[in-house]
Amino acid sequence: HFTKVSYQPLRGKKVVITAGPTRERIDPVRYVSNFSSGKMGYAMAEAAQKLGAHTVLISGPVELSVPTGVHVIHVESAAEMFDAVISQYDDASIVVKSAAVADYRPKNIHDQKMKKKDGDDVLELERTTDILKTLGKRKENQLLIGFAAETTDAIGYGQKKLESKNLDYIIVNDVTDPGGGFGSDTNVVTLLSREGEAIPFSAMPKVQLAEQLFETILQQESSKLH
Ligand code: CTP
Ligand code: CA
């Protein structure tokens, strides 16, 4: 009877992963959000955990079960996600921002259910803070990995985000690709590095893809990871 000795390159390292959408409240019964299912982020957490990491998953509201051994922090809004991520950042080795953070939130949260009125047909919004950009500015030794879901020119927009947010890698996907996207169990992505490499991954289950993404990144980073 043998015990399986697994490959655990992330043993002793803290990996922080965000997943799912955020919800920005309008009033007690309504919110602004997006179609993120959280599946890719949860798959990234499962892969990090398998590779031996102390894995912290900061999750927006999703209907998924937390992978065994993963420490979860549940959040609702972009502001709550910001606070949770910042609180976990300093001693993290790797941060993966898979969450689909709302870019706008209602300017006012109403305590009571809003009533419709004639002529009152505009909901005032304001921008949320860009969590990943803040992390990029404060980066010390952390390896910072972003995601970008696009509907057109995924590589071009991905490269711009990699630079403007000071990332080490960005994983881009075209959500209109039939092999993946929101809610799907499979995904097809390209991994872009700050050195300008573009590594394509064919359509495959999100959990398998997450493992391959970590393996590829770890191969490139083995000497540098703190
Ligand atoms: N992101 C974030 N905080 C925000 C918005 C985005 O941390 N307020 C992160 C996402 O988690 C993702 C990356 O930034 O890892 C790219 O998100 P994306 O929505 O593709 O890019 P944006 O910079 O928001 O640009 P746009 O939505 O206009 O394409
Ligand atoms: Ca956005």
What does this entry look like structurally?
The radius of gyration is 18 Å and the shape is globular. The chain has one domain: 3-Layer(aba) Sandwich (Rossmann fold), CATH 3.40.50. With about 230 residues, it is α/β, with parallel strands linked by helices. The chain has an eight-stranded mixed β-sheet, with helices on both faces. It has five helices and twelve strands. About 25% of the residues lie in helices and about 30% in strands. The longest helix has 16 residues, at about 205-220. The protein has helices at about 40-50, 80-90, 130-135, 155-165, 205-220; strands at about 15-20, 25, 30, 55-60, 70-75, 95, 105, 125, 145-150, 170-175, 185-195, 200-205. Helix 4 (about 155-165) links the parallel strand 9 (about 145-150) and strand 10 (about 170-175). The relative contact order is 0.16. The model has no long low-confidence stretch (mean pLDDT about 95). The chain starts with 13 loop residues before the first strand and ends in a 5-residue tail after the last helix. Bound molecules: cytidine-5'-triphosphate and calcium ion. The site of cytidine-5'-triphosphate has 14 residues, from helix 3 and strand 9.
List the helices and strands and how they pair.
Blueprint: E1 14-19, E2 24-27, E3 30-32, H1 39-50, E4 54-59, E5 71-74, H2 78-89, E6 94-97, E7 104-106, E8 125-127, H3 131-137, E9 143-150, H4 154-164, E10 169-174, E11 186-193, E12 198-205, H5 206-221
Parallel strand pairs: 1-4, 1-6, 4-5, 6-9, 9-10
Antiparallel strand pairs: 2-3, 7-8, 10-11, 11-12
Helix pairs in contact: 1-5
